[in-house]
Design brief:
The protein has about 130 residues and is mostly helical.
Length: about 130
């Protein structure tokens, strides 16, 4: 993993750890907070050991964008449980709906002007341009 990215994630984990300790002091030891603190500590230990960002099942590199989104991830996409896959699919569908809701209508008119657009996700545009 790139040093800059790992340094950023290390900082994020340390900050998360500090916030969890503060929350634990105020909550009287909530079990879910203790569990989350253990996960953060485990991620920090994996960084020290040099195994951070490596799938615990296949030992391949975990997707970098997923690590940035959730620095506690321990498995690549290929090794998610069925319930984790469903949760990820639901999150992606919700994100898609939100993004579509932010776009203007495809065919609009304003002050005598008519306009339309075609929205194509970047991954599709990349695949198309690389095949040309």
């Amino acid at each position: 993993m790139a040093d800059v990215q790992e340094s950023f994630l290390h900082g994020q984990l340390l900050e998360r750890r500090q916030r969890l300790e503060t929350a634990l002091d105020g909550s009287g030891g909530s079990e879910s907070l203790v569990q989350l603190l253990d996960e953060v500590d485990s991620a920090l230990e994996r960084m020290k050991a040099g195994t951070y960002g490596v799938c615990e099942t296949c030992h391949d590199t975990i997707e970098k964008d997923r690590l940035i989104t959730d620095p506690l991830i321990r498995y690549c996409l290929d090794h998610l449980t069925p319930s984790q896959r469903r949760a990820l699919e639901q999150d992606l569908e919700l994100a898609s709906q939100l993004q579509r809701g932010l776009l203007p209508r495809q065919h609009s008119a304003f002050a005598g002007w008519e306009f339309c657009y075609h929205y194509q996700p970047l991954t599709h545009a990349d695949n198309h341009s690389s095949q040309s």
